UniProtKB/TrEMBL annotation:
Residues 21-31 have a biased composition (Basic and acidic residues). Residues 1-12 have a biased composition (Low complexity). This is SSPN protein. Its main location: membrane. Residues 1-31 are annotated as: Disordered. Signal peptide: none annotated. The lineage of its organism: Eukaryota, Metazoa, Chordata, Craniata, Vertebrata. It is a multi-pass membrane protein.
Length: 232
């Protein structure tokens, strides 16, 4: 009889704890933390990533069409493609039913993939902006001449052994340099903005979801305290 009474008391105590947890506004806020202004979490970030990724990719291919001698690092369409892929994974996340604390394997996998792709997009965008900024600083010091439908530029015309930069398929050297400078400036702005968006997405996911996963504090706090109470 004593054992049955103690078990009933434990069950009633557990029910009271569950009622308090349900009525706790903090738990409601945690369950609703995946929404922002009434929208699911990755919608705003995915839309921004898609717009920026498409812009960087299109602009990179336009730059590649100006001259066939431009290097891949100077036409960073690859950074835009990575950001576009990350945004598509974010849209896939919207189609998955939300479960608190990543209770489903599919949700956890998609969110982890989105986090990793956003981090990769951050690194790619920063590298692209650095390459483009270096090329732009070089072009501001160039002295260019049009020779046989090619634009040949030098940093120091007085140095006969100085490096010569050749841009193929350029009938007018002045129009090529002006267009390329404009495209480089646009690439710097777009890639830096894409890097900030990817960084914000990674920060929000780490703070609200993956901080719980890596720290591992909130997984078994109730079971641990219950086991200690039973031992006592």
């Amino acid at each position: 009889e004593k054992s049955t009474d103690s078990s009933k008391a434990q069950e009633s105590a557990m029910k009271k704890k569950q009622k308090k947890a349900k009525g706790d506004p903090k738990t409601g806020q945690e369950e609703e933390s995946h929404t922002c202004c009434g929208c699911r979490f990755p919608l705003l970030f995915a839309l921004l990533q898609l717009a920026l990724g498409v812009s960087v990719t299109v602009l990179g291919f336009l730059m590649a069409g100006i001259s066939s001698s431009l290097l891949v690092r100077d036409t960073p369409y690859w950074a835009g493609i990575i950001v576009c892929v990350a945004s598509l994974v974010g849209f896939v996340m919207l189609c998955i039913s939300y479960q608190p604390d990543e209770k489903t394997c599919v949700q956890f996998t998609v969110k982890l993939l989105y986090f990793l792709l956003s981090a990769l997009g951050l690194v790619a965008s920063v590298l692209a902006a650095a390459f483009v900024a270096h090329h732009y600083l070089q072009m501001t010091k160039f002295t260019c001449d049009t020779i046989l439908e090619t634009c040949q530029c030098k940093l120091d015309t007085a140095d006969p052994l100085g490096r010569t930069f050749v841009y193929q398929d350029a009938a007018d050297c002045g129009s090529l340099t002006s267009m390329l400078n404009l495209y480089l400036l646009l690439q710097m702005g777009l890639n830096l903005t894409a890097a900030l968006v990817c960084l914000s997405a990674c920060f929000v996911m780490w703070k609200h979801r993956y901080q719980v996963f890596y720290v591992g504090v909130r997984f078994y706090p109730l079971t641990a305290t219950e086991g200690q109470q039973q031992k006592v």
